[in-house]
């Protein structure tokens, strides 16, 4: 595997142990990266820490972490003190329990990693764990010390390997009840639900992340290219919002405005299963710019 493992250790299920590596599954490295620069000189800016009271720059060897117990009152924690209480890892990813995949609440998902055997001798043990998860349709809950912090992970079978997703702690996930408590109960007419069902059925598709557009990143890339080429770029046009009733909006969305339009309904019918993925792929490819990222060029300094 060409990628470099971010963590190496052992996957442990009772007495069954195999050497594994974690590989980053999600990366932002391909996004357009912007830096803060001096408008006058074009030079990149450096971040400096300044004392809030004196206004003086504090050098790295004088910087320590602290916990605020009161406004402006901090308990200083020395690096040695933090290191002393930090849990020590044993390089083991220990499976503690299993649960049905249907019971997994993805609200707790944090960051996914590819998990694969680290050497040839571990492939048989790894395969047993992977196929056990796949055939029983369960996920494994495991614990490990990753990057100096104890973490819980959810491990699932995925293609020829495993996906290990770090989980958020319960205290980190905000209450859904608090978020939804002031949503009013709405009485809906049967026709509204029928129209909603029709819209959903005619727009039925499949999960195809390759067809998702990052319009913000594409717009930044095009802006950088335009400035490098000395041309202006036109801002996107704002669409005028129409004020319509909820029922009219549903009817128009369903292609049934004005008493019903069978042609519109037929045109919105979902493609056959064998062709919908191919068509979506062609559509996505057509939308992508020829060169998504601006080519690297020497930094130009003003004056």
From TrEMBL:
Q: Which SMART domains match?
A: Ku78
GO biological processes: DNA recombination; double-strand break repair via nonhomologous end joining
Q: Which GO terms describe its molecular function?
A: double-stranded DNA binding
Keywords linked to the UniProt accession:
DNA damage, DNA recombination, DNA repair, DNA-binding
Q: Where is this region: Disordered?
A: 255-303
* Pfam families (UniProt xref): Ku (PF02735)
For bias type Basic residues, the affected ranges are 280-303
* Family assignment from sequence similarity: Belongs to the prokaryotic Ku family.
Q: What does this protein do?
A: With LigD forms a non-homologous end joining (NHEJ) DNA repair enzyme, which repairs dsDNA breaks with reduced fidelity. Binds linear dsDNA with 5'- and 3'- overhangs but not closed circular dsDNA nor ssDNA. Recruits and stimulates the ligase activity of LigD.
| Entry protein name | Non-homologous end joining protein Ku
Protein's organism? Ancylobacter rudongensis
Report the gene name.
ku
């Amino acid at each position: 595997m060409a990628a470099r493992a971010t963590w190496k250790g052992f996957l442990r299920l009772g007495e069954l142990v195999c050497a594994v590596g974690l590989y980053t599954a999600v990366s932002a490295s391909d996004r357009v990266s912007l830096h803060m620069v001096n408008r006058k000189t074009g030079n990149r800016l450096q971040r400096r820490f300044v004392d809030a009271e004196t206004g003086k720059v504090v050098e790295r060897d004088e910087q320590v972490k602290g916990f605020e117990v009161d406004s402006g009152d901090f308990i200083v924690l020395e690096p040695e003190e933090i290191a002393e209480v930090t849990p020590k890892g044993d390089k083991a990813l220990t499976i503690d329990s299993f649960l049905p995949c249907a019971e997994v609440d993805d609200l707790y998902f944090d960051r996914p990693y590819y998990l694969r055997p680290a050497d040839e001798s571990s492939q048989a043990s790894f395969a047993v764990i992977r196929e056990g998860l796949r055939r029983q349709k369960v996920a494994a809950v495991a614990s490990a010390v990753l990057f100096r912090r104890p973490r819980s992970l959810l491990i699932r079978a995925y293609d020829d390997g495993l996906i290990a997703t770090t989980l958020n702690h319960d205290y980190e996930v905000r209450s859904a009840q608090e978020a939804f408590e002031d949503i009013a109960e709405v009485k809906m007419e049967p026709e509204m639900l029928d129209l909603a069902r029709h819209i959903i059925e005619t727009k039925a598709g499949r999960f195809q992340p390759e067809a998702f557009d990052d319009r913000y990143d594409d717009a930044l890339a095009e802006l950088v290219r335009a400035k490098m080429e000395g041309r202006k770029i036109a801002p996107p046009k704002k669409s005028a919002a129409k004020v319509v009733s909820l029922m009219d909006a549903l009817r128009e969305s369903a292609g049934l405005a004005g008493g019903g339009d069978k042609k519109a309904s037929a045109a919105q019918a979902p493609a056959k299963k064998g062709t919908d993925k191919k068509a979506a792929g062609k559509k996505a490819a057509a939308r992508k710019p020829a060169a998504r990222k601006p080519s690297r060029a020497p930094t130009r300094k003003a004056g």
